[in-house]
Fold this sequence. Notes:
Blueprint: H1 8-35, H2 65-69, H3 83-103, H4 107-129, H5 134-151, H6 156-168, H7 173-182, H8 186-213, H9 220-233, H10 235-263, H11 265-274, H12 291-295, H13 303-317, H14 322-334, H15 336-347
Helix pairs in contact: 1-3, 1-4, 3-4, 4-5, 4-14, 5-8, 5-9, 6-8, 6-15, 8-9, 8-10, 9-10, 9-14, 10-14, 11-13
Amino acid sequence: MMQTELTADAYWFLAVMAFVVGTVCGSFFNVCIYRVPAGRSIVTPPSHCYACGTRIAAYDNIPLLSYLMLRGRCRHCGTRFSARYFLVELLCGLLYLWAYLRFGPSLVLLGHFAFIGLLVVGTFTDIDHFIIPDGVTLGGLWLSIGLAFGFGDASLPGKELRALIETLDYLLPELRAVAERLGWASSGVYALLSAAFGWVLLWSIGFLGRLMFRKEAMGGGDIKLFAFLGAYLGAVNCLYVLMLSTVSGALIGSVLLLTHKFAGRDEVEELALALPADPPMAAPAGNTETLASEHGPAGEPPPIVLRIARKTSRQLHHFPFGPYIAVAAILVLMFSEELIALTGRLIFVP
Ligand SMILES: [Zn+2]
């Protein structure tokens, strides 16, 4: 590995750089999250305050620090910016640092940075607009295939293919023969096949979902996203992402639904909407349930609570699946070496 050639100072200097590069990229991803779903250019115009339109000067556009120094406000008009700008920058800094610590300084690490960035943009656009832009999914797909051809054995599809060849040798010696004939292109070809695998996998799940539940179970964005994941991670790793994301999505989704049910937010919302502005007439005896205690004195619906309830209920009735997939994909990336070794052991049947 390269880090053994580096002095400790250089290794940690690069670790700090990875974090800084992450925050700078995070700042750019914020722009993408905001502009790509609206179909606007991510290059022009330069960053400006959405309230007063003043262009944000370079010294006010330093990741993390500017947000802290200006306390999240526009220097000119004082409009408060969402804390998410800060959080996305911090998140990307930490993820890039983690990837550096896992994989060490190498060219492949830059590919991992791009992969993480695309997933961050996809996650937040999915949360905001329930879409994962084609720029993320199809853009990521072509980038991944290009990188697999470029990096060859060092790419994740390349590593997965080597592991499959080693473990399947006694069953399927043709696999090694085909890979040898393909030579340097074998990893890229395997990435293409893995992309097709991811696409067909999710398409079939969607097809079964339509048959069984008579409604759209899988968005087109999710299908393209899995083609991208197959191309970058390899087909078997793509299966790990599917398992991890469906299990965690089902668990967290049911917890959210249950707490939502227990909190009775839907009912509160409907009752609050139905309530007259004036204090209600005396409730009939026997039905003196606790509306007043839910709504505060005089039965006035509290507008802020109401707005939060409406927002959560709207978000709960549509589960964006993208964030679960992205978290699973980043975990599979970080533990890819272990998973590829595990795959070898699972497949091996003496
Ligand atoms: Zn402003």
